Amino acid sequence: MNLKNRKRELVKEFSPMLENWSLGSKIWIGFLIAIILVGIYAFILQFVKGHIVTGMRDNVVWGVYIINFIFFVGISYSGAFISGILHFFKTPWKNSVSRIVELITVLSLLIGPVFILLCIGRLDRLHYLFLYPRIQSPITWDIIAIMTDLVGCFIYLYLTFIPDFAILRDNSDLKIANWRKKLYKTLAINYQDTPSQRERLHKITRTMSAMIIAMAIVAYTVLAWIFSLTLQPGWNSTIFAPYFIIAGLYSGVGFIIICMYLIRKYFKLEKYIRKIHFIAAGIILLVMSLLFGYFTFSEYFPKWFSHKTNDGELLKTLFSSYFWQFIFANYIGVLVPIVILFFKKFRTIKSITFAAIIAVLGLWLNRYLIVIPTLETPYMPIQDSRIEFIHYSATWVEWSLTFTGIAAFCLLFTLLIKFVPIIPMSGIIDYERENSKKKQPSVTE
Amino acid sequence: MKSYTYNYSFFTYLLVALLCFNLSMAQESDVTNYKMRFAFKTVKKADNTRLLEVKFIGQHKKDRKDLVPIFEAEINFYNILNDEEILLGTSKTSEEGIAQLILPENQKYLFDEDGAINLTARFNGSETIDEQEESLTIKDIQITLDLKEIDSVKTVFAKVFTIDSLGNENPVDEAEMIFFVQGMLSKLKIQEGEISDGEFEFEFPTDIPGDADGDVTIIASIEDSDEFGNAVQQQTIKWGSHVIEPVTKVKNTLWSEAAPLWMYIVLTFLLVGVWANYVYTITNLFKIKKEGKKIQT
Fold first, then answer.
1. What is the ipTM of this complex?
2. What three-state secondary structure class fits B81?
3. Are B292 and A192 within 8 A, CB to CB?
4. What is the number of structural domains in chain A?
5. What does the pLDDT read at residue A445?
6. B-chain residues within 8 Å CB-CB of A386?
């Protein structure tokens, strides 16, 4: 195998993704920027007028912002977990999905924490969190965990990008701006793909992948503890941390499948992202949906069985005011993916993606039901009788900022896949190199 | 394929609808489902002013726990004698459904032949809520507190009397009186009994701690009396059994300034472990860079 030629071939194959901005992609970016601009206006309004422009009040102090935070961070941690597993165990089909997963991991971890900032009433006091931290507080643990994880994810993402930066640097046929060529050169840190460089890079990537798996578990556990270490009915649960991890993995796998489907369709990558990848991801989604269903049942059943007054009140609220949301999140969101993914004949690319959409939306609603009804049924009776103090309802400002988060994620994702190929070229070369080694007769034969 | 696309679109719209709109069932707020509760009470306060208070709440006829305060309802307070009505004042109900009016110490009242005052609270009604009215006939009561140490025994003297239209003091008899000490969150009952010939006295307990300065606030109270309504009087005195010393040193706990030691140890180990790995990774990146530079040169 002539490495140089193969690298050139691959760059040629992926160059349309990196070089051209089609009219469609320009309209898409314009649309995303428009959503972001509306979100910026909503943020200015919230900053100037305060939280009165949101649906959050004295009792329901956390609204859709915290749900988006848990959702995005959950996707990020599950992405880190899955990416770590793919690299650590050298999964054969990792090339098709690993970059998608890595980008999802980092971008969600960038977007997610922004939502927690939107929950803070006095942003001008944000620095107090760092100046006067209380080591006993789960909030402090979470800040430390998120920052450490973010740095780790960035390093990890960069490690996986280096060989591709080197390939792009060495290819003069690529019709891109000079600044991009210079940037590839800088970011490639003189990587020449020598055996010793490759071995060193593989070693640190593998160590980081193990670290990323552990970090994802610790960080998401800490996030779950923010809720479960309080005495609130509905939150004070011993299984909350593993429940969060499973829920995060469930939504994360679903999100990856959706991204795989969109990227495959838009970039016409049927050669690289094949049905077998969807089926493999679908089976993981099936396992996660079964585990998630089991944990959900284990979470709610003791509450119903124990007949504790406050738990009873919460369940009453869930099965009355939030009946349809509860049914969708915990029945449809679990059973529909199970039915689709359990039977072989239903496992088509579209149906697996549909199951993933149901799972992701169900999970978002599940988070909504964990946060809002619980805050609406506190131990102490709600003193203020105004309807907006009793029942939370998100305002346009909150929805706008929610969609801004999603738009920012999509925009960054679109820009990044214009910067590096969505399928790692170095991964393909490594795979082919391994295969050719296996085909060569060994000395002992 | 067509039906699949149809299902797909249908479910997508359903999901979007579910996400965008909070489907919380609207509370049944039809006023005919509610029975009006109009409670009127009066309290003679420690500064001899009089509080008139109405609590106006709608209670669901089926779900009795469903209470909806009536907000912004205009309540008129009157002093009535036979056909003569004197408007004492007007107040609107708050978000909690409470309307209050404070009458000054020197307020003039109309007294009946028994020396009683008729107080009436009235809501004139609205398009949806009927007129509400409640009256109280009470005597204008006053409580005075005298706190003395007699032979080193801390003694509480209370004098209770009514004032008639001529300004004469008439001692109160056979009314229940309760004494409290004010705590941080609630009142602690220390004595109760019946007033005899307008007087009540008892020995103050010796085991009541005071605040940081050793002060205790003693409250004398008559509650929900048909004849006198509510009346309170209070006085603060340095009778606390001991001064509570502020805790100067707290061990490392969840609620102290410094966290438990094990938390620092665990957190340090975790962070050092993770960040050391980051440093190790970055060091290796520099080595890769250095090696590449050598090859280039």
1. 0.87
2. strand
3. yes
4. 2
5. 36
6. 95
A376 to chain B, minimum CA–CA distance in Å? 12
CA angle A314, A317, A321 (to 5 degrees): 160
Q: Residue B198 is part of a domain; what is its CATH number? A: 2.60.40.10
Q: Report DSSP letters for A129-178, one per residue.
A: HHHS--TT-HHHHHHHHHHHHHHHHHHHHHHHHHHHHHHHHH-TT----H
**Is residue A440 very low, low, confident or very high in pLDDT (cuts 50, 70, 90)?**
low
Can you give A184-230 as a three-state secondary structure string? HHHHCCCCCCCHHHHHHHHHHHHHHHHHHHHHHHHHHHHHHHHHHCC
pLDDT in tens, B197-206: 899 999 999 8
Residues B272-294 have pLDDT tens digits of 999 999 999 999 999 999 998 88
Q: Closest partner residue to A324 among B23, B255, B259, by Cβ?
A: B23
Q: Over the stretch A86-139, which tens digit does the pLDDT of each residue have?
A: 877 777 677 778 888 889 888 998 899 899 889 888 888 889 988 988 999 998
Mean pLDDT over the full length of chain B: 85
Concatenating the DSSP letter of every residue in A60-122 gives: ----HHHHHHHHHHHHHHHHHHHHHHHHHTT-TTHHHHHHHHHHHHHHHHHHHHHHHHHH-S-
Ramachandran quadrant class, B14 (left: phi over 0; alpha: psi -120 to 50; beta: rest) = alpha
pLDDT at A282: 92
User: Is residue B245 a part of any domain in this protein?
Assistant: no
Residue A394, min C-alpha distance to chain B (Å): 8
DSSP state of A346: G
Predicted pLDDT of residue B41: 92
From CA A364, how far away is CA A366, in angstroms rounded? 5
DSSP letter at B196 equals B
In a domain, A21, yes or no: yes
Q: Give the residue numbers spanning the domain of B194.
A: 141-237
What are the tokens at B70? 């009536």
